[in-house]
Design a protein that fits this description.
This protein has about 260 residues and is of the alpha/beta class. Helices cover about 45% and strands about 15% of the residues. An eight-stranded parallel sheet has the order 1-2-3-4-5-6-7-8.
């Protein structure tokens, strides 16, 4: 089966900061059948609220992956919505024109329900990009200012129905996240983050449809064999597994 990983951090901490390190990441991915990786950047390198200058450094580093390995990496642009419209639009235009990024990555600078998300919606519309929003159930975190519960990400999708959005971390959002995303055609869920939970993939496919679930690992934080295995071992049709592992991401990001 084809595999495209929609949620990876090839550069993370001290990993991937040399050509040799990136070649190891590529070899590791190919050994597991991963034909493309969506590179999201070392998004917490400067903490939760990066400045404009710090974003430029992170996005240059991540964007160069796609320029140097266009047959393997697809880069997203990391943005901080709290910096305002001018900063958001300036950086996304720079990333699109210089690196050809295919999407926007959001982490924990703000809650997805914050009004500043209108800047992200404008950027996504202007350049026809998909937005990947870090999401997690804060029942065990408690940081409502920065962390986005699944309902917050769903609220973002509901406010901007013309924007394609990926709610990250199926294991982190759990059954609660699946129900929050249900009925929102512009909202997709990726399978990254956390150890596999029996029945969760099946539940997501049942309630969201296989075409709204995307395979993601969260490499290097998670092992590819474990995350891929959670899809291959799920009690769903083979066609649904292929949709999740590659076809949905290829369609969403126009990679075919």
């Amino acid at each position: 089966m084809r595999i495209i990983d929609v949620h990876t951090h090839p550069i993370f901490s001290d990993i991937g900061r040399s050509d040799a390190g990136i070649q190891k990441v590529i070899a590791y991915g190919r050994a597991h059948g991963v034909e493309r990786m969506i590179a999201l950047g070392d998004v917490l390198h400067y903490g939760t609220n990066p400045t404009e200058e710090q974003l430029v450094k992170l996005n240059d580093e991540n964007g160069r992956l796609q320029l140097r390995h266009p047959d393997y990496f697809v880069s997203f642009c990391y943005l901080n919505p709290m910096l305002g419209e001018r900063a958001v639009m300036g950086e996304i235009e720079r990333c699109v024109t210089r690196y050809g990024v295919r999407g926007i990555k959001l982490e924990v600078a703000n809650n997805a329900a914050h009004s500043c998300m209108r800047h992200i919606a404008k950027a996504a519309r202007t350049f026809n990009l998909t937005v990947l929003q870090h999401s997690w159930s804060t029942t065990h975190i408690g940081d409502r200012k920065h962390q986005s519960d699944p309902e917050d990400t769903a609220s973002f999708a509901r406010r901007f129905p013309d924007v394609r959005i990926i709610m990250a971390h199926l294991v982190g959002i759990g059954y609660r996240g699946v129900l929050a995303a249900k009925g929102l055609p512009n909202l997709h869920v990726d399978t990254s983050g956390g150890f596999p939970e029996e029945g969760l993939i099946e539940y997501a496919v049942e309630h969201l449809g296989a075409d709204n679930v995307l395979y993601g690992s969260d490499l290097p934080i998670r092992e590819l064999s474990v995350k891929i295995g959670s899809i291959l071992s799920a009690n769903i049709p083979a066609a649904a597994k292929q949709q999740i592992l590659a076809e949905n991401t290829a369609r969403l990001l126009n990679l075919n």
